[in-house]
Write a structure and sequence with these properties.
The protein has no helix or strand. The chain is mostly loops and 85 residues long.
């Protein structure tokens, strides 16, 4: 079963080192969230707002980030599996 956080208001949440692999997080509000070292493998981040979030050393291999908002997101250059578009 996949964790369903779709559309949830998770602004400022601390997910440091969390296992969010294959989580459904489409259109979630993750503004300012801390996702340092989080496992986001295969997560659905489509349309999620990650403005100002910290993704340092996270693993986003296979994550769906279509239409995700990544403005002022920290650590993008350290995220595994993330290619800049």
């Amino acid at each position: 079963m996949r964790t369903d956080l779709s559309g949830a208001n998770l602004a400022g949440a601390d997910f440091t080192g969390a296992d969010l692999s294959f989580a459904l997080m489409s259109f979630a509000n993750l503004t300012g969230a801390v996702l340092r070292g989080a496992n986001l493998t295969g997560a659905d981040l489509a349309g999620a707002d990650l403005t100002g979030a910290d993704l340092t050393d996270a693993d986003a291999s296979g994550a769906d980030r279509r239409r995700a908002i990544l403005a002022n997101t920290r650590g993008l250059d350290t995220v595994k599996g993330l290619t800049q578009r």
